[in-house]
């Protein structure tokens, strides 16, 4: 989980650096879409894998963690909404400042979410996730198999 979170932080940093260093050239616009879409797809994939794979395993083994999982799932929904804002910004041709604001918003929620998730779940994952579970099924496309 921590490894995926670090990869997502790095991907966000790369996307923000590309936006902040950018100009209005057509080539840059393509690069920004690539970096931002790549980050958004990876973050969304991570959360979809947790919602569909990891969280049901945790709830089956530890029903007492239902409030934690509910909070994390709510965060995922909020982050998905923020990702949709980035996607709208990318397709509307909005300026750099607006795109940076959207990425800053995602970063703020993402950091709070990752910290909470790690504090609440890291200590229990080894006892819950089967050794033969596909990492991508639990943690998304950046986990690798």
Description:
The protein is mainly alpha-helical. It is built from 5 helices and no strands. Helix 1 runs antiparallel to helix 4. It is elongated. The two termini are 13 Å apart.
List the defining traits of the structure above:
145 residues; mainly alpha; Four Helix Bundle (Hemerythrin (Met), subunit A); 5 helices
Summarize the structure in short.
With 145 residues, the chain is mainly α. Helix content is 83%, strand content 0%. It has a single domain, classed as Up-down Bundle (Four Helix Bundle (Hemerythrin (Met), subunit A)), CATH 1.20.120.
What's the arrangement of secondary structure elements?
Elements: H1 2-21, H2 26-61, H3 66-92, H4 96-128, H5 135-139
Helix pairs in contact: 1-2, 1-4, 2-3, 3-4
Helix-strand sequence: HHHHH
Which structural class matches the secondary elements? mainly alpha
- Sheet of most strands: none
pLDDT < 50 runs, ≥5 residues? none
- First-last Cα distance: 13 Å
Amount of beta strand: under 5%
Total DSSP helices: 5
The CATH class label is Mainly Alpha
């Amino acid at each position: 989980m921590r490894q995926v979170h670090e990869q997502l932080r790095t991907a966000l940093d790369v996307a923000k650096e590309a936006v902040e260093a950018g100009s209005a050239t057509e080539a840059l616009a393509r690069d920004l879409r690539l970096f931002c879409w790549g980050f958004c797809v990876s973050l969304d994939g991570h959360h979809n894998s947790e919602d569909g794979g990891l969280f049901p395993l945790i709830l089956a083994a530890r029903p007492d963690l239902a409030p934690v999982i509910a909070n994390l799932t709510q965060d995922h929904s909020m982050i998905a909404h923020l990702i949709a804002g980035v996607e709208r910004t990318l397709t509307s041709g909005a300026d750099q400042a607006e795109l940076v604001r959207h990425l800053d918003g995602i970063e703020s929620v993402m950091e709070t979410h990752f910290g909470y998730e790690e504090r609440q779940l890291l200590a229990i994952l080894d006892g819950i996730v089967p050794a033969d579970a596909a990492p991508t099924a639990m943690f998304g496309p950046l986990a690798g198999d």
